[in-house]
Amino acid sequence: MLKNSTSGYGLVAIALHWLMALAIFGMFGLGLYMVTLNFYHPWYHDALETHKSIGILVGLALVARVIWRISNPTPAGLSAKPLENTAAHLAHMLLYALIAALLVSGYLISTADGRSIDVFGWFQVPSLLQVENLEDSAGEVHEFLAWTLIVLVVAHAAAAVKHHVISKDNTLRRMLRPGL
Amino acid sequence: MKKLLLALSVSAAALASTAANAADYVIDTQGAHASINFKVKHLGYSWLTGRFNDFSGKFSWDAEKPEASAIEVTIKTESVDTNHAERNKHLRSKDFLTVDQYPTSTFKSTGYKVTGKGTGELTGEFTLHGVTKTITFPVTQIGEGKDPWGGYRAGFSGTTSINLGDYGMDGYLGNLPVELELNVEGLRQ
């Protein structure tokens, strides 16, 4: 059961969802942590390099996820109220958009001087845009978007829990079990 | 004809005497014949160099009266450039220059002591990161004279060393000496 049906998610969509959820929480924590490290900390360089590498991988996962979403049926919302289903759908779109913008802003910080991003030594992502002091504006946007994303992620998770506990429907369960 | 020659030589002498008065020079940042560079030791193993790309200033200089020299330089701190975007961003942050709060750094001379031909000691108020200190450092005249395009130029170089901690940047690199180098060429006004 790899593909989605109109009522439930397939294994690929579920795997991509939880992989990105894990990466986003991890990256938020790592991001907040790495900027507090002082120059002499052993992780001063590795924390940033890891953050950049995972960021690029999340970008690839997001591209795969969007392609998969377009080429698969999207399971319909389970709320009885159409407004709630529409709100959930808009929240999902906003989550994708925020993740994409967050990735772009992060990429722009590290590539502002023409340097490429080295992903765990496997491959490099070249710089495409160099503007004077771009690292500063991109940095402010990156921090703002990170907090915005986390607020929306918390709302998204709270809504899933509400569906599970209060509405007692399959919303959360079908994101854990393929083909439900 | 003789009269004309005389008149010419008199006006030439007049010109020459004007030139002997302290003249005002504008630092040629327009043509980038000036630079503010710094270097700091990376872990004690090597020199890391950087510069401030955006600054402006003027000075007065008279080879006959060097003790009357004066200089004023204003540096835009956000123009700090170490050829590495992530490091530049860090240097502009509150860990170092805090450029949002302290957008400019200035040096205003208060005195110049001649120590030799074309050398001297410049004293002045240096403001960095909102902290003003009086510093004295040696300067050398590199040269002066007419340029090929109708102007007159004079150039100097000076170096000094500061500690970031003395200017309120007393973080983990606060006691690391930073060598500052000022190279200016002025275009006489």
From TrEMBL, chain A:
A Pfam family: Ni_hydr_CYTB
Transmembrane segments: 12-33, 53-70, 90-109, 144-165
SUPFAM superfamilies on file: Transmembrane di-heme cytochromes
Domain Cytochrome b561 bacterial/Ni-hydrogenase: 9-177
Alphabetized InterPro entries for the sequence: Cyt_b561_bac/Ni-Hgenase, Cytochrome_b561_oxidase, Di-haem_cyt_TM
Molecular-function GO term, any one: heme binding
Keywords: Cell membrane, Electron transport, Heme, Iron, Membrane, Metal-binding, Transmembrane, Transmembrane helix, Transport
Location(s), subcellular: Cell membrane
Required cofactor names: heme b
Membrane topology designation: Multi-pass membrane protein
GO annotation, cellular component aspect: plasma membrane
UniProt record, GO biological process: respiratory electron transport chain
Main location, first listed in the record: membrane
Family of this protein: Belongs to the cytochrome b561 family.
UniProt-recorded name of the protein: Cytochrome b
Organism (species): Parathalassolituus penaei
From TrEMBL, chain B:
Superkingdom assignment: Bacteria
Lipid/polyisoprenoid-binding YceI-like domain mapped to chain residues: 24-187
One Pfam entry name: YceI
UniProt entry keywords in alphabetical sequence: Signal
Signal peptide range in chain numbering: 1-22
PANTHER family: PROTEIN YCEI (PTHR34406)
Name used for this protein in its record: YceI family protein
Native source organism of the sequence: Parathalassolituus penaei
